[in-house]
Amino acid sequence: MPSKPYPPVPRNPPYSAPGASFPLPPSDQSPFTALGLGYIKKFREERLSSLRPFAEFFDTHRLSKPSSLGVATSRLSYNLPRFQGNYMLVFLGITAYSVLTNTMLMFSVGFTVGGQYLISQVPPEGFVVGVSRYTPRQLQSGLVCVAIPLFFFSSTIGTIFYIIGASAVSILGHAAFMEEGMDGDFADTVV
After folding, report:
1. Of these four, 15, 27, 119, 161, which has the most CB atoms within 10 Å of its CB?
2. What is the pLDDT of residues 128-179, one digit of tens each?
């Protein structure tokens, strides 16, 4: 006995403005959310809301060398979640510094992002230059062929390892050398 075929899944047609060659976000969705800025807002609300005051983060009275590996491990497990927002700012600061001081990398990122934006503005049927027609797919392939050597010569891999190393030393060093605070019922009591 043959089984009945499943009915097709209904799909919403993409919404686009009259005369526009790219789909627009639905009217109930903010344009900032469509651009990914909703992720930034969510990141700010979730991760950066746990920022500790900088006086607590840079409290030099609580800095000391751990006496053993067990003490260092307990400090790491206490301080990493406690200062998570502050450590995220340290990581973003190191990343911004390393990208801003590498002008070739900044040019490569700008060239790639700008090229991708310009390609997104090309209609799907492409455009004609002389007797040749170039589609967006061909333009993206050309952009990749140019961007890979640009990123290679701008020492992107070295910059990534610098960011990882500098962040690890800064964050893990701070977390291991910062003594655990007094949390609990007696934290606000002054002796």
Report:
1. 119
2. 888 889 999 999 999 999 999 999 999 999 999 999 999 999 999 999 999 9
